């Protein structure tokens, strides 16, 4: 899969303030910043993102995606 396709899937499934994705065509890493993460723990945030790409993971079209999930406040604090 092309990184732009993965971004489109994530953005179609949730509102993102920031979305960065890098990968080699098989393995991808993303930073997902969304207000939808407020009040969710790390596992719940991951589940929220995985729901947006579940069909591609199940079909094997997308092999692996790791990601960092942040609220807008966390993202702002991290960036200093």
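Q: What amino acid sequence fits the structure above?
A:
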């Amino acid at each position: 899969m092309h990184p732009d396709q993965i971004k489109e899937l994530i953005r179609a499934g949730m509102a993102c303030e920031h979305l960065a994705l890098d990968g080699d065509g098989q393995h991808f890493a993303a930073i997902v910043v969304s207000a939808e993460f407020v009040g969710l723990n790390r596992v719940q945030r991951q589940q929220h993102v995985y729901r947006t790409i579940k069909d591609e993971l199940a079909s094997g079209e997308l092999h692996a995606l790791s990601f960092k999930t942040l609220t807008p406040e966390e993202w702002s604090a991290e960036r200093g």
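Q: And what stands out in the fold?
A: The first strand starts at residue 18 and ends at 23.
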